[in-house]
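This section describes the prediction task in plain terms. A model, or a person checking by hand, is given the sequence of a single protein chain and must write out its three-dimensional structure as a string of tokens. No templates, partner chains or ligands are provided. The sample shown here is typical of the held-out split.
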Amino acid sequence: MAAVVGIRAWPRPVVLASETLLVAACYYAAGRLGLSQRLTADGAVVTPIWPPTGLAVACLLLFGPSCVPGIAIGALLVIVSLGTPGAEAVGIVAGNTAAPVCAWLMLRAVGFRPSLSRLRDGLALVFLGALAAMLISSGAGVGMLVLSDKLPTHHLGLIWLAWWVGDAMGVVLVTPLLLLLYRARLPPPPSVRWVEAVGLTVVVCVAVPLIMYSSVSVLFLCYPLLIWSALRFQLAGGMPCALFASVMATVVARQEAGSFGKLTDIETMMKLQAFNGTLGLTALLLSAVIGEQLNTRRSVEAACQELVEALQHLNAGGPGNPGSPGSPGAPGGQAR
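The expected answer:
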């Protein structure tokens, strides 16, 4: 008999500490990445896409509430990296931690599936996980900065809106992509779909920068590429395409190039947030609708196949068929 080698698991405190440090490190890295593309509007620094919120929601959906300490530590590290934190840092960290937790609780309450295989999952992620929950982080952040006199009161509503949309876009664009990567499996052998995927990638990587840097405002040309990606590859095509286009738009806006070249800071922020928001919503909801339809079609086809097999089995074993018990010509059967 082969020997059975037992593997002793790591102690629970060590596992929790390692998980906390890993989540905190990923949150910090995502925060620094988001800050690298920040914009200045009316003296305030805003990020059109805030990836840490999407990372935090994805971690909670995949691994549960044990990620909360790592999210809080990561949020604190991001604030410390910007300078010496004041008393307002406590409120900002609390808001940045509470918002993903509330998103996770609401999504869990409505039966959200991380596979995003239903339209209701896409709607729940947008309206509960992004738009509703991120009111907490944006409200806490802006409120604490106003109370500490570190935020100008001019255009306060626009600054809060930019903060809210940036946090929400992190959930809409980053969370589905991370959930998709977590479920990713080894791709099948090269086929026609591989050729189409490579061709689509090349077209997107070439066309999107040309669209963004064009002096004529033709941002709407990104939508045919997005629709093609979502129709053919669902989330695996739609979300990377939307994220790439949003990142490129943010880079061009920071450079004050393309269709963002002759705009004021406030106009640039509003145009960029509107573009990112509509692009992310279109990609997520369209991919969810197509995925749900394909799953329904596969279920119907599988049910039809099972029905055909059941009918064939009944016909093969019926009393009137040759070889069935009791039929003429069968062993032990008697002719009438």
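For orientation: DSSP finds eleven helices and two strands in the chain.
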